[in-house]
Design goal:
The protein is of the alpha/beta class. It is about 30% helix and about 30% strand. Strands 1, 2, 3, 4, 5, 6, 7 and 8 form an 8-stranded mixed sheet that branches. The longest helix is centred in the C-terminal third of the chain and has 23 residues. The relative contact order is 0.19.
């Protein structure tokens, strides 16, 4: 018995530490938010051609506030919090890129690829910066704001800012999630019309 006591005493700090550390990534929030395209190509729809002729849709740049999977809440001009009980299923910039590509594909029938590594071909390149995709507590509204940069076949670069606001939204996950999807689809549709 005397020999086992020192072993248990030596293990006690590690057992206490195990209760404080979570190696499993934590409990998932009740709401996981994604973006679902309002305009989607039907099953069986196809487009083909050389990669050099495709429109390349790049993942937009973001600041650190949007570089995480949590949904930002702008409290005032200087302070940001994150929405409780909700997070994105993946980085919002990647979700928005997929939504843009699918919306353009559905509305134009063009050959569209999603990639940050592919150089712009004959179809051009759509890049930009996702400035906002979250909740504004002052306005009680969801806002999606995107600065698009379009590089045309001849090398001409054009920029345009797009924005959608869905007002009258409660600061709750079950209200903010659908409003974000609505606003993101509005912006994606505007961008698709601009790109042509």
């Amino acid at each position: 018995m005397k020999r086992t006591a020192p072993i248990w005493l030596a293990a006690a700090p590690f057992l206490a530490l195990a209760g404080c550390v979570n190696l499993g990534g934590g409990k998932a929030p009740p709401t996981l938010v994604s973006l679902t395209p309002a305009n989607s190509a039907p099953a069986g729809a196809s487009a083909s051609g050389a990669l050099k002729d495709a429109l390349v849709v790049a993942e937009p740049e973001t600041d650190r506030r949007l570089a995480v999977q949590r949904i930002p809440v702008q409290i005032d001009d200087a302070n940001v919090a994150y929405l409780q009980n909700a997070q994105w299923v993946e980085r919002p910039a990647r979700l928005f890129r997929s939504l843009l590509a699918e919306t353009i594909r559905a509305k134009s029938g063009r050959l569209v690829v999603e990639d940050n590594q592919v150089e712009a071909g004959g179809g051009g390149r759509l890049a930009g910066r996702l400035l906002d995709m979250g909740y504004d507590a002052r306005r009680r509204a969801v806002i999606v704001r995107y600065d698009a940069i379009r590089e045309a076949r001849n090398g001409t670069v054009t920029t345009k800012r797009f924005e959608a606001v869905v007002p009258g939204i409660e600061p709750k996950a079950e209200a903010v999630g659908p409003a974000l999807n609505q606003a993101a689809n509005q912006v994606a549709s505007q961008v698709a019309e601009w790109v042509g």
